[in-house]
Design goal:
Distance between the termini: 32 Å
Strand order of the largest sheet: 1-2
Mean pLDDT: 86
Shape: globular
Structural class: mainly alpha
Strand content: under 5%
Radius of gyration: 23 Å
Oligomer: single chain
Helix content: over 70%
Number of helices: 20
Length: 589
C-alpha cells in the first residue's frame, strides 16, 4: 500500500520548467486569489477616503478611520489561517479547505460590489477574511508536502510560487485599480472584477485537484503520521490540554474583539473596553493581557517538546518576530503610501512625459503577461490530456485578462492627458518581484546561499533604505500639508528596495518553516507564521493612521524616518544572532 502511494505521488516524473506540474497548478490558483485580494486592497483605502462628491464618489472617511479598518481587515485575513489550518489538518483536508475558502471569498467580493450600503462592505470583509483563513495556509501546506523528499528544491519552489502570488497581485492592482478609479466604471466594478477572477481560480483548482495524488485528502481518524526523516522521539504527540484550549480560546476572543473594536470605536465613538487602569485605556489593557497570555502559552507549549524540536521551533519564533516588523513597515503600501501617491505625488502627465509613461506602462504590462502566458502553455502541454476542463477554465480567465489589458492600454493612448492612477504604484512591487525572483531563486540554489538570519537582516535593511528614499523625497513638504506634488521617482525607488527586501524575507521564511517543523505540524505552524503577519498588518494600519498627526506635529519626512530606522536596526540585530540561530537549527540549511 505504501509503495502505491509513493508511486502515485512521484510528482517529479512530470516536470514543467524543472518542477512538478502540480506546482504550477498551485501557481495559477494562488495567482487568481492574489488578483482578487490585492485588487480589492488597492481600492479599499482610496474608496473610503475619496470625496462623497465628484465623478467617482467614495465615502469621504477620515484617513485614520479608513486605515483602522484597513489594518483590521488585513490583520484578520492573516489571523484566520490559524483556525483554517487546524480544521484542514484535523477534519476536511487541504483540498476542500482551499475550495471552501475560494467560494467564501468569491461571495465576499460580490458583496463588496454593492458599495452603496455599508452593510454589504462589512459582510464582504467578513466573508473575505473567513475564506482566506481556509485558503491561505492550506495552499502552502500542499506545496510543502509535494517537496518533502526534495528539500534542496524548496527555496526555488517557494520563490516560483511567490511569483504566482505577485503575478496575481500585479494584474489585480493594475486592472481592478484602473477600473475602480475610472469614473466611467467606478468602485463597484473594481470590487466586482476581483470576485470574477476568484471564481475562476476556484473552478480551476477544483477540476485539477487530482494532480496532487494523495496530498490534501481528508485526514484519517486516529492516523498518526511520522515523517520518514523525523527523529522518532520528535514524532510523539503533544496534545493540547483543557487548560491550553481554554487559554487559547480566551486569547483569541480578546484579540478578535480588540481588532474589530479598534476601527469600530474610531468610527462610532463607542468602545467595548469602556474602562481604564491607571493611565492605560481599556483597549490597551486588553491587548497587553492577551499578549502576556500568548507568550505564556507559547513558552509552555515549546517547553513540552524534545530539545531538538524545541530549538527549531525557537528559530521559527525568532524569524516570526522579525516578520512582524517587516510587515508593519511593508504594508504601508496599501495605506500611507497609497495616500502619499494620491495626495502628495505629481501624477498628471502630458506631452512627452505622457508618451514615455504609456510606452513604459505597455512594456511592463505586456511583457510579464506574455511570460505568464508562456508558463500557462507549458502547463497545458503536460496536463491538458488529464485535466482538460481545468485548463479550459484557466485559458478563459487569461482571455478575459488580455481583453482588459488591451482595453486599458487603448484608452490610455487615446487620452490627451494621463493621470497615473494612485493604485498603479502598487503594481511596481509585483513587477519587480516577477523580474527579480528568478535571479534570487537561482542565488538561493547556488553556493552563495546565505543563512536565514543573513537573508532576514539584509531584507530588513533594504526595506529601511526604501523608506529613506521616501523620507528624503518628502523633505520639501511643509508640516501639516494635506496635498503636495513631489516626483514619482521616490515612490518608484521605495517600491524597488521594498521588493528586494521582500524577496529576501517572505518566501524564504515560508520555506524555513516547512524545513524546521515536522510534516504533521505544517498546517498549524504556517498558521502561527501568518499570526505574525497579522500582527504586523494591524500595526501597519495603526501606525499608518498616525500620518496626519505626525505630519502636523513634525513632518512627512519624520513619519517615513520611523519606518527607516526600526527595520535597519532590527536587520543588524538579527544578523548578529547568526551563530546562535545556526546552532539551534541543528543542520537545517
Amino acid at each position: 500500500m505504501q509503495t502505491s502511494i509513493e508511486t502515485k505521488d512521484d510528482f517529479f516524473s512530470s516536470k514543467v520548467l524543472g518542477h512538478p506540474a502540480g506546482l504550477f497548478v498551485l501557481f495559477f490558483t494562488e495567482m487568481w486569489e492574489r488578483f482578487s485580494y490585492y485588487g480589492m486592497r488597492a481600492l479599499l483605502v482610496l474608496f473610503l477616503t475619496s470625496s462623497m462628491f465628484g465623478d467617482n464618489p467614495g465615502w469621504g472617511w477620515p484617513r485614520e478611520h479608513a486605515l483602522a479598518i484597513y489594518g483590521s481587515y488585513t490583520s484578520l485575513a492573516y489571523l484566520t489561517p490559524i483556525l483554517g489550518g487546524f480544521i484542514a489538518d484535523r477534519f476536511i483536508g487541504y483540498r476542500w479547505a482551499v475550495i471552501l475558502g475560494a467560494l467564501l471569498m468569491t461571495l465576499g467580493h460580490l458583496s463588496m460590489a454593492f458599495e452603496f450600503n455599508p452593510i454589504f462592505m462589512y459582510l464582504g470583509l467578513c466573508l473575505l477574511v473567513t475564506g482566506n483563513g481556509f485558503f491561505k495556509p492550506n495552499m502552502t501546506s500542499i506545496l510543502s508536502h509535494m517537496y518533502k523528499k526534495h528539500p534542496q528544491k524548496k527555496d526555488g519552489a517557494y520563490t516560483i510560487f511567490y511569483m504566482g502570488v505577485n503575478s496575481g497581485a500585479f494584474l489585480g492592482m493594475l486592472l481592478c485599480g484602473y477600473i475602480g478609479e475610472n469614473p466611467n466604471w467606478g468602485w463597484s466594478y473594481g470590487f466586482g472584477l476581483a470576485g470574477i477572477f476568484m471564481f475562476v481560480g476556484m473552478l480551476q483548482f477544483y477540476f485539477t485537484k487530482n494532480i496532487f495524488g494523495s496530498i490534501g485528502l481528508k485526514p484519517e481518524k486516529n492516523n498518526v503520521v511520522i515523517d520518514e526523516d523525523e527523529d522518532p522521539a520528535e514524532a510523539k504527540r503533544n496534545p493540547f490540554s483543557v487548560f491550553d484550549i481554554v487559554l487559547i480560546g480566551l486569547i483569541s476572543i480578546i484579540g478578535l474583539v480588540w481588532i474589530i473594536n479598534d476601527p469600530a470605536s474610531k468610527i462610532t465613538g463607542s468602545t467595548v473596553f469602556n474602562f481604564s487602569v491607571g493611565s492605560l485605556t481599556g483597549d490597551n489593557v486588553a491587548i497587553i493581557v492577551a499578549l502576556i497570555l500568548f507568550i505564556f502559552i507559547l513558552i509552555k507549549r515549546i517547553a513540552q517538546y524534545t530539545p531538538q524540536l524545541r530549538d527549531k521551533m525557537i528559530v521559527v519564533i525568532v524569524l516570526a518576530f522579525i516578520t512582524i516588523f517587516f510587515w508593519a513597515s511593508f504594508e504601508q503600501a496599501g495605506g500611507s503610501m497609497t495616500i502619499f501617491a494620491k495626495d502628495y505625488t505629481a501624477r498628471l502627465l502630458e506631452g512627452n512625459a505622457k508618451i514615455i509613461f504609456n510606452v513604459a506602462n505597455t512594456l511592463i504590462t505586456v511583457i510579464p503577461l506574455v511570460i505568464i502566458t508562456y508558463v500557462l502553455f507549458s502547463l497545458f502541454r503536460k496536463t491538458f490530456a488529464k485535466f482538460a476542463l481545468g485548463n479550459i477554465i484557466l485559458a478563459a480567465g487569461f482571455a478575459i485578462i488580455w481583453g482588459l489589458v488591451i482595453y486599458m492600454l487603448k484608452n490610455q493612448y487615446a487620452d490627451v492627458k494621463a493621470e497615473v492612477p494612485a493604485t498603479w504604484f502598487g503594481v511596481l512591487n509585483s513587477l519587480f518581484i516577477i523580474s527579480c525572483a528568478p535571479i534570487v531563486s537561482k542565488l538561493w540554489e547556488s553556493k552563495f546561499n546565505p543563512t536565514a538570519t543573513v537573508k532576514n537582516g539584509l531584507g530588513m535593511i533594504l526595506l529601511g533604505i526604501g523608506f529613506a528614499a521616501l523620507a528624503y523625497g518628502s523633505s520639501s513638504i511643509p508640516s501639516g500639508a494635506k496635498v503636495a506634488s513631489v516626483s514619482m521617482i521616490w515612490l518608484i525607488l521605495a517600491y524597488f528596495f521594498h521588493t528586494m527586501g521582500e524577496l529576501f524575507i517572505s518566501p524564504v521564511g515560508l520555506s524555513y518553516v516547512s524545513k524546521l517543523v515536522p510534516g504533521r505540524m505544517i498546517g498549524i505552524m504556517f498558521g502561527i507564521w501568518y499570526l505574525a503577519i497579522a500582527i504586523g498588518n494591524k500595526i501597519a494600519g495603526t501606525m499608518g493612521g498616525e500620518i496626519d498627526k505626525i505630519t502636523a506635529k513634525y513632518s512627512m519626512s519624520t513619519f517615513f524616518l520611523i519606518f527607516t530606522l526600526i527595520p535597519i536596526g532590527l536587520g543588524i540585530f538579527i544578523m548578529l544572532l547568526t551563530p546562535i540561530i545556526k546552532k539551534l537549527m541543528h543542520g537545517v540549511k
